[in-house]
Amino acid sequence: MNLLQSLAGVYDSQSSRAGAKREDTDAVLLPLFHTYLTAHITVTIDMQGNFLDACVLDIRKDEVYTIVPSTVESASRSGPEPPPNPLNDKLVYLMRDAGSYIQDKQMILDIQKRCSAHEQLLAAWSLSTYAVPQLKAVRQYLNRKRTASDLIAANVIIPEEDGTIDEKKKVAGRDILSCVVRFRVMDQEAEEGYAAETWKNRELFQSWISYYTAFVMEQGKKDICYVTGEYTVCTGKHTNGIRGSSDWAKLISSNENGSIVYSRDWFREGIDAVSIGLVTSFKAHCALSWIIKRQGRVFGSNIRVCWDADGNPLAFDLFANTPDIQGKHEYRFFAGRDAYQRHLDVCFSEVLTDHRMFHMLVLDAPNKQNYKGRLAILDYVEMPSDVICRRLKQWHRTACWQFTTGKRAFTGAPSAPDVVIAAYGTEYGGVLTVVDKTVFARQVNRVVSVILSAQPMPSDIMANLICRAGNPCMFRERSHWMMVLQVTCALLNRDAAGESIMLDKLNTDRSYLWGRLLAIADYIERLYFQEVREGCISGVCGYMQMFSRSPGRYWGIIRRRLTPYLYKANRMRRGLHACRLMEQVEAMAAGQADADEPLGSAYLTGFSSQQLYFIQYDYAIRKRSEEHTSELQSRRS
């Protein structure tokens, strides 16, 4: 199944609810041959076309999302003379009394030309057999040519002292002529359920769909649709607005001649390269826009979206860490691998038997500064749900570690954005972030692709992580370095198939042992200063990069500098425990050959494991002390 075919299928499955709001999402699936605009002014009239009221909309408080009927031309309009929509549209298409309020003669001619084009569309529709009373009321109102006069009377437009309108003045933050006007038609005799709002009236939606479908099927040029294989009316103009109402970028376009979009050496016209059915194109673009708004993950101009045959999202978040994988924020700390494995089995048990096919699409735009130009398909793949979930489970099972940074501690795998931030992030404004959003989006999608394909993490990402985790002096905040270190350990653990998430006291690997020794020395120094240097990189960790290159040499330096700290540590319960541990690990490392050779990446997992051991050890002592204190207080009372 191709991309457009799958999107058209989603539209067909959801078409009965097109134009209606749903409880589970704010996104609205557009009816066929409709688009949406952000409205700025609402004009209220009655069924006889008489003006009742007008008001300016506040984008922060009012519902400005407005569904409007559109044509093939207006749905993809651009250029110096954009064609009108047939009903609600910008004021420049509706202000037929512009000659009385605008001084610029050339502008008056331009407005009259646009109003004439709008009137032709509206008249053809309202005089057809598909017309409804609401539609005729709007036409009657516009034919009175009092739009500007009524807006001035309602204080929506404030005229100049001479009574003219300055078209450069702002209404709702927009130039007056570019404000979108929508109509509400009041009917005192209407039955229950009548929608006065033209942008919500499903009868009006169906009226335009029926009229315009009949029109294009009669007037349109027929050809073979490459998507469905049917002989039907095809189009070379495709809808924009995929990412939002102000989005002019198109997924399919052939309006530039030469070698930019299609080569004249091969094709005389764009339709010679590919022909797509008009209805199929509208359905596919509307469905894609709806899916993006409902469940798309947006990183700047980059978008990744996943859907099944009915447009439903995947049960799990591909980008999330383990606690957020189902959107439940279940932060749990597991003492061992077996307990963690049982937790994952429960999470994934319901979906591993689901064989629905899912479509995954990645879009991006070459023009990063605005929403014009083209949209590019960077990746498109179809995968069964059970395969996706199996690989996602494998990621969370193997790329797991104990995370203690941030607000909550948890056992699990890092999120895809966290991996990228750890590999490429810089400290900015007190947080660790990737400033270049293009790099961030590209790398996040690389990580997600690795998860879904069950392939090794790219070597450049791993090299960055190992380098940054082993150089804590790169960071001002200790918590930022700890986050990088723990993410790196999670990915190193993935390479080892998730063998261990706790300290392995029996591991005699040379690099692992040296990493443990460095963590013990760091703990002893931090005990000495207590909370005085909380959040800062310790002096021991300042040697970490050089220590990894020549551990034997730099351990001697660190050991000598620990002397004053050891004196105080030996008088503390926690310090005494750390000193004994250091002696044990030193004894295990003493028999290792090549004491001064560079360490492997396992020293990072040894260091982090030992750190996590001390965090749990401190917590146990603190909890025991609190229990003892509360017990004494209860005895006294």
How far apart, in Å, are the first and last alpha carbons?
A: 75 Å
Helix content: 40-55%
Q: Which stretches of 5+ consecutive residues score pLDDT under 50?
A: none
Structural class: alpha+beta
Kindly list the characteristics that best describe this protein:
single chain; 637 residues; alpha+beta; 4-stranded antiparallel β-sheet; 21 helices
Care to describe what's here?
Helices cover 44% and strands 13% of the residues. It contains 21 helices and 19 strands. It has helices at residues 3-14, 72-75, 105-126, 133-143, 147-153, 202-219, 270-273, 278-295, 337-348, 385-398, 416-424, 437-453, 459-469, 478-495, 510-529, 539-542, 544-549, 551-561, 563-569, 573-590, 602-636; strands spanning 34-38, 41-46, 51-56, 65-69, 89-90, 170-171, 174-175, 180-186, 222-224, 231-235, 276-277, 297-299, 302-307, 357-364, 376-384, 401-403, 410-412, 426-428, 431-433. A four-stranded mixed β-sheet has the order 3-2-8-5, with helices on one face. Strands 12-13-14-15 form a four-stranded antiparallel β-sheet. It has a three-stranded antiparallel β-sheet with strand order 9-10-11. Helix 13 (459-469) packs across helix 14 (478-495) and helix 15 crosses helix 21. The protein is elongated, with a radius of gyration of 33 Å.
Element layout with pairings:
Layout: H1 3-14, E1 34-38, E2 41-46, E3 51-56, E4 65-69, H2 72-75, E5 89-90, H3 105-126, H4 133-143, H5 147-153, E6 170-171, E7 174-175, E8 180-186, H6 202-219, E9 222-224, E10 231-235, H7 270-273, E11 276-277, H8 278-295, E12 297-299, E13 302-307, H9 337-348, E14 357-364, E15 376-384, H10 385-398, E16 401-403, E17 410-412, H11 416-424, E18 426-428, E19 431-433, H12 437-453, H13 459-469, H14 478-495, H15 510-529, H16 539-542, H17 544-549, H18 551-561, H19 563-569, H20 573-590, H21 602-636
Parallel strand pairs: 2-8
Antiparallel strand pairs: 1-4, 2-3, 5-8, 6-7, 9-10, 10-11, 12-13, 13-14, 14-15, 16-17, 18-19
Helix pairs in contact: 1-8, 9-10, 11-12, 11-13, 11-14, 13-14, 14-21, 15-19, 15-20, 15-21
